[in-house]
UniProtKB/TrEMBL annotation:
Belongs to the glycosyltransferase 2 family. This is Polyprenol monophosphomannose synthase. The lineage of its organism: Bacteria, Pseudomonadati, Pseudomonadota, Alphaproteobacteria, Acetobacterales. Keywords: Glycosyltransferase, Transferase. It comes from Komagataeibacter rhaeticus. Pfam families: Glycos_transf_2.
Length: 255
């Protein structure tokens, strides 16, 4: 469905009045997600009708034209932005660049494959802005959550094993430290950027391990959905990257 300028958010200057910045920036690291870009945008639009938000897609030079689709949407609606990364890859580093490009007091991170439930974004935002939490995690492992949308037994094994290992290294007790769906106060994230490993897929775990004091965290249940389009990028190299990230933080603590 083509995007018409008539559907654009009323984001223009009216009578010289300058519109304030977004309250929530949603960071979408992506690679080969062209077919998911507009459906994700539409889903977020339906889920957050009363919140001033923006979507920041961070694309690692996808050969399928993902960034072109993002820029097409951005021309019609200024709530969409696209960052094209050339010569570098990786989910965690993409998220870092996306967060640092934003100015909203709250940032959320979610995948571009439609497996994360966008309807949870409002509750995540409220948990931080109204309830005083610093991190709100979309969890598959609290009551009401489910991870049945994982593609196969290999991904299920990686997730479960990673959770058990990660819990040994965290100062805050959470059930789903491997979640890729979370919101955080932007200033908390920025304050620890220099201590992040920036490797692998698990930026939430990376961020939590980089904290000097345990943040206030809440877990909110969500059902992990099946992929809308495209294919999973998870492979065995994530085990090496996961080990490198853990080692990075263990070594930093010893120093």
């Amino acid at each position: 469905m083509p995007v018409s300028s008539a559907l654009a958010h009323p984001d223009m200057y009216d009578g010289g009045t300058v519109r304030s910045g977004p309250a929530l920036s949603i960071i979408i690291p992506c690679y080969n997600e062209c077919g998911n870009v507009e459906p994700l945008f539409r889903a977020v639009e339906r889920a957050l009708p009363h919140l001033h938000w923006e979507l920041i897609f961070v694309d690692d030079s996808s050969p399928d034209g993902t960034i072109g689709e993002v820029w097409r949407l951005a021309q019609a609606d200024s709530r969409v932005r696209g960052i094209l990364r050339v010569g570098r890859r990786g989910l965690s580093s993409a998220v870092i660049e996306g967060v640092l490009s934003s100015s909203a007091p709250v940032v959320a991170v979610m995948d571009g494959d439609m497996q994360h439930d966008e309807r949870l974004l409002a509750r995540m935002f409220d948990a931080i802005q109204k309830q005083g939490y610093e991190v709100a995690i979309g969890s598959r492992h609290v009551e009401g959550g489910d991870n049945s949308g994982l593609a196969n037994a290999w991904r299920l094994f990686l997730s479960d094993a990673g959770i058990r290992i990660a819990q040994h290294f965290l100062s805050v007790r959470i059930s789903d430290p491997m979640s890729g769906f979370f919101a955080v106060r932007r200033d908390l994230f920025v304050s620890c950027v220099a201590r992040l490993s920036g490797t692998g897929f698990k930026i939430l775990l990376d961020m939590l391990m980089a904290q000097k004091t345990a943040p206030r965290v809440v877990e909110l249940p969500f059902v992990f959905r099946s992929r809308h389009e495209g294919e999973s990028k998870m492979d065995r190299k994530v085990l090496l990257q996961f080990g490198q990230m853990i080692a990075h933080h263990v070594f930093a603590r010893k120093k």
